[in-house]
Amino acid sequence: MSVYLPIAEMSVSIFLLIGLGAGVGFLGGVFGVGGGFLMTPFLIFIGVPPAVAVASTANQVIAGGVTSAYAHWRRRTIDMRMAGVVVAGGFVGSVVGVLLFGLLRRFGQIDLFISLSYVVLLGTVGTLMAIEATRTFLRRRHSTGGRRRLHEHYWAHGLPFKVRFPRSRLYISVLMPLALSFCIGILSGVMGVGGGFIMVPAMIYLLGMPTQVVPGTAQVQIVFVAASATLLQAIQHQTVDALLAFILLIGGVVGSHFGSVMSQRLRGEQLRGLLALLLLVVAGKLLVDLTLTPGDIFTVVTQRR
């Protein structure tokens, strides 16, 4: 059964969209990420215009994020003080990102920019995660049982405006999480990502947060940043396809619930290795699509005002 998407101006199988929403929601619950970095490329693959995919995906990220965050809140695995800091930084970043999105769209380069950005971002993050997961696996096999420091102290830990985060057992500069979440907010506004696939490893390896509180804390940030980006996109550019977002939302809620349960049963380096492989495959597919000769050399696009 197909459904017509008014903003995307195309018909798509409703079961395909629900399946995409559930699959990405499941991955979001497992890895503690929003899933927008996968949903947007998948929508582009099935023919949804990149600008509409970015704006509509942010709404789907909210649904999966709320479900996953609630599950972590019930297990008391959220650092609410840290969550407040990263939400503030992410909101400001999302405003800047949406303004940048509008500028690129005005110059007619938004579709190319989105595709290239995903190739670079997914390829880089996927490669780094694959290297880290491999090293962790090898260390586990050759471990001598000694204790290893969670993170190294470097110049950033000497920055001013230090704040205590009792739940994470940290005393660090508030500038670090603010700057990190600001950058994530920009990505959310321009690319429709929740940013969890960057925020989660950054919280662990840069901020030094305990692994058990990272996914839940990241999900809180993802929900609020994605919500602000969606609202701004709808007001400024009218690129949010409400029907598409609603269908993805239904699948995302169901998938993220099962994903949050599954995350408690799997080993960390195995999950990171699988996610890295998935990122590299998606980046490769986008790169191939960019280099292939299109079927139609010229296309006509109507600009909404």
From TrEMBL:
Its main location: membrane. InterPro entries: TM_pro_TauE-like, TSUP/Inactive_protease-like. GO terms for cellular component: plasma membrane. It is found in: Cell membrane; Membrane. The chain crosses the membrane at residues 12-38, 44-71, 83-104, 110-131, 170-198, 218-235, 242-259, 271-288. It is a multi-pass membrane protein. Signal peptide: none annotated. Keywords: Cell membrane, Membrane, Transmembrane, Transmembrane helix. It holds the Pfam family TauE. Belongs to the 4-toluene sulfonate uptake permease (TSUP) (TC 2.A.102) family. PANTHER family: MEMBRANE TRANSPORTER PROTEIN MJ0441-RELATED, MEMBRANE TRANSPORTER PROTEIN YTNM-RELATED. This is Probable membrane transporter protein.
